[in-house]
């Protein structure tokens, strides 16, 4: 007779056989099987009377007492196959419970659907093939952009970010620039340097960073970021990658730069962002000479920049609308700006003007292309309440806070070195004077 046994039961069989052969004692067998000696004696008695079949579980092969009726299983599967075709186990269970009134668990329905080939488990599904994407045909057709945060100077300077612009068709490094953070202003500066050197490409290819894409659901009604507005003004499209693998060319370039560029800067003795940005054009030329490829189509799709330098200054700005109050003032960044009291400006009361902040920190106020003169009334800066700091100013704010803390620590050190005598020392002086009244009298005379 063939008896199916589990690993646990086979182990018990071998231990009981050793007891019968007098190789081990019942106490040793109980320790091996982690059960009591009384249980060992019961198992040994059954083994001697019925043989190995006595160790097999008596319920094996029997129908469970908690098993649902076969009619219920068939009824549920018929409804799933006829009315709920393509539904997953969770959604199908929801419909069977709420619509048809069945009382079964999700996992029971899942096992029924898998056995009836109505559902394929995720582990048994065929993997979706991700075929490689061919590079674009023309130079300047698609530029991949990304920021790489790394210890680029190997401790010789603080960690920073490298903005990378690489052409998809040729693999050429179009532009590199070190900056403190991956902010909107830094991308504006790098994009302007790019278009002034190469022209305007057809499109940029980026990730879903908040500089490029509005990710907050509460702000999605704006639909465009400050950097996206700049590209829209220049007639440059931006495409968002769904995964890092989708923009693999710039990701692989980052990995290569984190090896080659770091070592090259070590040999050159570069220890600051300013030195690195001044030297990067030489590295880009060497890199492209070694790694760049020919495009499939020799046509260059970069377009000429038709805007003047002054127009580009106004394009690459942070723009926000501000309403003119009855007192001819607008507020921006904890500062009140007073407009000139002219008849033309009085007609702007209640209307929205555009406040322009340039990457160098200067500001301007504009209405329908006309710049408006202003003066600053900086009363709000006296408030102690902290403002909400945006990403574009985070680096400068942290540097200012660090400088304030260093100055405060130096002031505290100076105060400790020049501090007054302790209270105990003062009491000692008073006590000595009380013990020597003659001295005090002589001094007074």
UniProtKB/TrEMBL annotation:
Basic residues: compositionally biased ranges: 413-426
An individual GO BP term: DNA integration
GO MF terms, alphabetically ordered: nucleic acid binding
Residues covered by region (Disordered): 407-429
Signal peptide stretch: none
Pfam families: HTH_28 (PF13518)
Domain Integrase catalytic: 128-317
Cross-referenced Gene3D superfamilies: Ribonuclease H-like superfamily/Ribonuclease H (3.30.420.10)
InterPro entries, alphabetized: Homeodomain-like_sf, InsJ-like_HTH, Integrase_cat-core, ISNCY_transpos, RNaseH-like_sf, RNaseH_sf
Name of the protein in question: Integrase catalytic domain-containing protein
Species of the source: Acinetobacter gerneri DSM 14967 = CIP 107464 = MTCC 9824
Lineage, opening ranks: Bacteria, Pseudomonadati, Pseudomonadota, Gammaproteobacteria, Moraxellales
